[in-house]
Amino acid sequence: MVPRPRVVVGIRAVVTEVEKRAVEDAATQCRGAANVSLIEEPMAAAIGSRLPIQDAAGSMIVGTSAAGTTEVAIISLGGIVASRVCGLQGMS
Q1: Cβ atoms of 7 and 35 closer than 8 Å
Q2: What is the mean pLDDT of residues 59-83?
Q3: How wide is the angle at C-alpha 11 spanned by C-alphas 77 and 72, nearest 5°?
Q4: Would residue 1 count as lying in a domain?
Q5: Predicted confidence band at 18 (pLDDT cuts at 50, 70, 90)?
Q6: DSSP per residue over 13-34, as a string?
Q7: H or E segment at 48?
Q8: Structurally, how many domains does the chain consist of?
């Protein structure tokens, strides 16, 4: 028997619950995942950069994409306090 993988997918911080569910469903169907977890891309970047995400002080993450969009997020106390996506596709 082939084990079913655990899948972690990075998503924008500004996606809707419907979009989150669609990503989870697609990952489950595509790879037959036993477990699908979503992590907001700014949070993943902050963790990977070893920023003090649990502190009361804010940390700013700026991410750019080849599609011409930029995502900015402020992280404090273990969560995303504020976020914005801007670029060629408009403001979200």
Answers
A1: yes
A2: 92
A3: 55
A4: no
A5: very high
A6: TT--HHHHHHHHHHHHHHH--S
A7: helix 41-48
A8: 1
Per residue in 65-84, is it b (16+ CB within 10 Å) or e — as a string? eeeebebbbebbeeebeebe
Residue 23 has pLDDT above 60, yes or no: yes
pTM value is 0.79
Chain length of the chain? 92
> Which stretches does DSSP call E strand in the chain?
6-11, 35-40, 59-64, 69-76, 79-87
**What is the Cα 12 distance to its own chain's centre?**
5
Give dist(CA 51, CA 3) in Å, integer.
34
Full domain range(s) for residue 51: 6-87
